[in-house]
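Protocol step 4 of 6: record predicted structures for both targets in the notebook before any analysis. Target 1:
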Amino acid sequence: MQSIRNAQSRIKTELESKIMPNPTKGIVNYQSNDEIDQIEIYSLNGVSLIHKKGNLGKYGKINLENLPKGIYFAKLISKNSDARIERIILE
């Protein structure tokens, strides 16, 4: 029974998040079940284009208007180090 409890305590909760609207014309809103500590926007080649760090809250906006049209990835990282990657289509 103790080993089950130990295994359960090691299970990491997955960060639940939404990026909307998607596709977007430039401004996207994020919403998550946990406080966000970092947001990174990556190109398809894996190049980091935007990096925000600090107390970003459970919801907010990301401005992509200065980026060319295309497909990007947003990596949201919570204060607990849980992470989620969302695809964003910029029209």
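Target 2:
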Amino acid sequence: MLLATSAGADMEEFEVQAEVAGAHAVVVVAGEIDAATAPLLKDKLLELVATGVERLVVDLRAVTFIESIGLGTLVAARKRLSVGDKNLCLVIGDDQANIRGPFEITRLDHVFPIHSTREAAIEDCLSEPAA
């Protein structure tokens, strides 16, 4: 099942797509995650949790900017998921220092497993049964 949310007009182009497979989902985010768009991301992630998704891979490779509210959105979603170290994993490209940096500065890179490719994240985070 594919679910999509997008925003444009006054906001920088922003899009969230989710592919759901049972209790797992891969969410692809594109654009800037800021005060205007973080609520859209939060709504999508919480909607997935409410439908029974227990593990998420969030692909941020098409994200061009992330504010602290975006970090908080991901932390809040992680807390709503089933208990486990790999219930929410991130994909951030090796060439995305501007996205990886905020996670490292806040030490959230020790909270979220971060992978350079979607395939690696899926193999690491969705291959085990949910807790």
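Step 5 preliminary note on target 2. The mean pLDDT is 89. The chain is about 35% helix and 30% strand.
Proceed to step 6 after PI sign-off.
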